[in-house]
Predict the structure.
Amino acid sequence: MTIPAVGSAAPDFTLDTTAGSKVTLAGLKGQKHVLLAFFPLAFTGTCTKEVCAFSDDYAAFASKDVEVIPVSVDAVPSLKAFKDSTHASIEFASDFRRDAARAYGVLNEAAFLANRSYFLIDKAGIVRWAYVEENNGLRRENSEILAEIAKIG
């Protein structure tokens, strides 16, 4: 599996969300930048901190025309329960079939979950920044992600 290179076209995806709808990269193209944030599993410590931080800073991302899409391999019902438990204001996306994690080169086949990773995709569908954590217990701070977003303009 290969991670999409910065400057290359981001693989399209179609994911079910906790809002009961599907989200696709193609559907956001030309409208919003996308932060695709893969997290390993709902209801775990680092993942909870991460999605709460995304929710807390939602306005900062929205003001930059960025759609934040936290993605895990959990099923939608589990993600809905996770969303409710964290009181998150953002919707989560389910990659239950692991197609997106495979397309982005971040599926840990042995554990059958996505490694924590971030892909900043501009409105044209081009990967502008990618980061894969060396350890799933680590995460990028929103300030670092927002600094990368600022480089897009």
